[in-house]
Design brief:
With 474 residues, this protein is an alpha/beta fold. It has twelve helices and 20 strands. The strands form five sheets. It has a six-stranded parallel sheet. A six-stranded antiparallel sheet has the order 13-14-15-20-17-18, with helices on one face. Strand 14 and strand 15 form a beta hairpin. Helix 5 packs parallel to helix 6 and helix 9 runs parallel beside helix 12. The chain is globular and about 70 Å long. The two termini are 40 Å apart.
Length: 474
């Protein structure tokens, strides 16, 4: 008996130690927009790299044990933002059969003391995310439901949400939900302003429809703190007859274009790709026999967006976003259980991008495509470059040789490394003169040949020349 008690005490002490060492980003103060209007930082100036996941149906489909398991694994893999759907229908129900709402948007019947209701379970999700150092980006109501929520109801709902979560440290608000911004505009404005009136301390954005950016409609709104675009799930040339978006045909995969579009707006605001192509989802969504996006595709979307200037990135997986499981009829051809999807390579590779970006000074970084000398490639041959004053990072998806202008950063001599974004491994290439230099990497053309070139002023010590892998950055 004595040994059992001692064993339990040691186990509890270990749990307590782990909890005490979990990084809580809000310990640096609340999130705010950086002085240069390009990034998110904490009140003390600490940069925040958004490494998100689209876990849309978590409130509806996971029980308490599953929430704890999922969010613990998310933390372990480096994710620090969960994008969730609060209301996906009128009414919305969770796994316990508890109702969230009705058409009146009077929430009193669904928040009764003594009953573990829908909103109590959402509170549990928020609290469990907080314990794991994770933000909850709440998409308040999915865009398909906007016709059922007029301005009066939107104001009631916004007041309810804002007052309920204003004191939680880990909330980010998302208006919209996979919808064109010119649909339901008055209701979206009413919802956003009601939330902000009750809760002025948390940041807010708008989640738009695929192949669009919030900057087209809401960049001038006082409630919009940063822009979000949804680059979507189409491959090049897969327009499917759509006439409702303004990007050029055959540019569907060029998510870097939305960064440039957003930065053209005034006032300047930070931007992020909040929904790129998901791992293991059919290209184009609706033809389940179509090829599925793979790990190298989700890496490409991530590095293209971030190196073009995004302050972070959101990953997605077909099975995880809807929490697919046996016995559930999946959307978009999903077949894999969500817990098995967390073993997929793309899911496990996103953390290396975060580690890379936080290795260097973050908020003085800009996207600078002039680093790529000569004519840049198109489509998969497009090389994306970003830099600070004394370092540059260049993402090459196809493996095609590239000429890089090393004079774009400080230093008469430059140290260079190549990073494998699939596992975070590093290889030191040597010291280079301050001139335009051609780089070529081993590997076949396309398909998992992507690499990141890292070039640093030789006087700086951001990386050890003997390092073989990136250091963890949480």
């Amino acid at each position: 008996m004595k040994r059992i008690i001692i064993g339990l005490m040691m186990a509890l002490m270990a749990i307590g130690t782990e909890a005490a060492t979990i990084y809580k980003p809000w310990s640096n103060g609340k999130l705010t927009v950086s002085a240069n209007h390009r990034y998110l930082v904490h009140e003390n100036g600490q940069p925040f790299f958004w490494m998100g996941n689209t876990s849309w149906l978590m409130p509806e489909r996971l029980n308490r044990d599953e929430v704890e398991f999922f969010l613990t694994r998310e933390r372990e893999e480096g994710y620090n933002v969960e994008q969730i759907q609060v209301l996906c229908a009128i009414p919305t129900y969770n796994v316990f059969g508890q109702q969230a709402n009705d058409e009146t948007f009077n929430f009193a019947p669904y928040t009764k003391a003594g009953i573990y209701g829908y909103w109590d379970h959402l509170d549990y999700i928020v609290n469990m995310a907080e314990a794991n150092g994770i933000y909850i980006a709440m998409d308040c109501i999915w865009g398909s439901q906007i016709s059922k929520m007029d301005e009066k109801k939107a104001t009631l709902y916004g007041k309810f949400l804002g007052e309920r979560y204003k004191d939680k440290p880990n909330i980010i608000w998302m208006i919209g939900g996979d919808i064109m911004g010119d649909k339901g505009t008055a209701s979206w404005d009413a919802l956003a302003r009601a939330i902000k009136k009750a809760d002025p301390n948390h940041l807010m954005t708008f989640h738009p429809r695929g192949r669009t950016t919030s900057a087209w409609w809401y960049n001038d709104r006082e409630w919009l703190d940063f822009n979000m675009f949804q680059s979507g799930h189409r491959r090049y040339g897969q327009r499917n007859g759509d006439g409702d978006y303004t990007i050029k045909e055959n540019t569907e995969e060029d998510n870097w274009r939305y960064v440039e579009m957003s930065f053209e707006k005034s006032p300047l605001k930070p931007v992020i790709d909040g929904e790129p192509s998901y791992e293991d989802i059919p290209q184009g969504l609706h033809d389940f026999s179509a090829p599925r996006w793979q790990d190298y595709d989700v890496r490409r979307y991530a590095y293209w967006a971030v190196f073009a200037g995004c302050f972070g990135h959101t990953y997605g997986h077909n099975s995880i976003m809807q929490f697919m499981r046996p016995g559930v009829l999946g959307s978009f051809g999903a077949e894999k259980a969500w817990w098995d999807a967390m073993k997929d390579p793309g899911y496990q590779q996103m953390k290396y991008m975060k580690w890379l970006m936080l290795t260097f000074p973050f908020t003085d970084r800009i996207g600078d495509q002039s680093i790529v000398a000569g004519q840049n490639g198109e489509r998969y041959d497009r090389v994306i470059a970003t830099r600070g004053t004394d370092y540059m990072l260049v993402y090459n998806y196809s493996g095609k040789p590239m000429k890089i202008d090393l004079t774009k950063i400080s230093g008469e001599k430059k140290d260079a490394w190549v990073m494998n974004p699939s596992d975070g491994t590093l290889k030191y290439l040597g010291e280079y003169d301050n001139t335009t230099t051609e780089f070529a990497f081993d590997g076949a053309y396309l398909r998992s040949s992507d690499k990141v070139l890292i070039v640093v002023d030789a006087k700086k010590s951001y990386l050890d020349k003997n390092a073989t892998k990136l250091e963890e950055k949480w």
